[in-house]
Amino acid sequence: IPIGNSKESKESPGSTWPKDIIALEPGETAWDVVLKKIKELSDSDCRDAFMVADLDVLASRHQVFRQALPRVSPFYAVKCNSSPWMLRVLAALGTSFDCSSQGELEQVLDLGVAPSRIVYANPCKPVSHIRFASLHGVKLLVFNSEEELIKVAQHHPGARLVLWWTQDSDSIFPLSSKFGARLEVCEHLLESARDLGLAVVGTSFHVGSRCQTPRNFMKAIVDCWPVFEMGSRIGHDMSLLDIRGGFSREEGSDPEFEEVAGMINTALAQDFPEGSGVEVIAEPGHFYATFVCTTTVNIIAKKAVLEPGGRRKLLYYLNDGHYGTFRIFPRESEPRMPIMVKELSPKLSLFPCTLFGPTCDAFDKLFLKEVQLPELDVGDWLVFPFMGAYTSVLSSTFNGSSPTSICYAVGPELRSLLETTP
Ligand code: PLP
What we know:
The protein has helices spanning 30-42, 55-68, 84-93, 102-109, 127-135, 146-155, 183-195, 214-234, 257-271, 286-289, 412-420; strands spanning 9-12, 15-18, 21-23, 50-54, 72-77, 96-99, 118-120, 140-143, 160-164, 171-173, 199-204, 209-211, 240-242, 279-282, 293-306, 312-318, 339-340, 351-356, 371-373, 381-384, 405-410.
């Protein structure tokens, strides 16, 4: 929604902003916004769950990425968090985009982003989406099979193709069982593309989301070199290397981003040095989005149970859960501890607790394991930070749930950038 043109807009001094945008005062932080909202909601009857997105954090993640990887152009993975304001900020900052469906292509094109700033990175595309990309000038397409080449030759013969080959061992969310061509079939695929009159311009790999071994990036980049040589020998003008996503979130359990970036820079300098004519792009998702959002939930119901042996266990029922913004949690090895917004004595006893979501499905719980929490009450608030990646995008309407509302905190510098960007 253009600023100043929104149905939901309200007057604020000097400019008009939609209601879901919260202009931070000097010295105010997104955490202050969370606490203010908790207070407001606690004073009313409605204690709905809510998310706060800190758009300044998004801008600083972009800066960190650019500084650490100066050779690499980021194409933000829209699938990770497609909130309109997140995309709008990234578009204003000059980021490019990785889209994986017609819906995502439409969302990004509607922001006025040039088609040349988009990679259609899903290697298994419906024909109608390929045609949409062709019609709207999105040329950079990823493939990993002969069947995909046949569809592209028929419906988007002017595409610039990127071959995704497989390399993703040792990541928390591997992708190789679904996507990527094995190295042994790359030559055949490159020849098939040539025979169909298609242009392959580069190669790509995905180490898997939240890669745990920085050296995997280095190895994958080095291993791309034979694919480049193969492509050139077969007659393709190989000029693009897509190192995709998988960058750590830097949250204790993942390797440091700086270490990963150092490995990538070394591998690039060695095999694809500046002046080689090779453009390098990446599709970061987690790295950009994780720290941007906070989800705040309310305890709507509670049950204490005595287990055999007399162990007291607490069941807390929250107003957001597995079918809302927490769907990614069971895939993580350890539960994430919430921040409790309540004055608690340091000597409080802890109990094994299960955190359930609000629906009538017994599987609707935040974690597969129990967590240790103190005795809390119905009406208390729990805050989960680092909720920007693969959270709201995965929520459903199951059991009549509506999506958890999001408001966006923005500092003055970013506000003026957004005001001056068409
Ligand atoms: N690119 C592609 C094709 C992906 O499938 C994904 C994640 O699934 C990403 C980029 C983003 O990965 P991450 O969020 O780990 O950076």
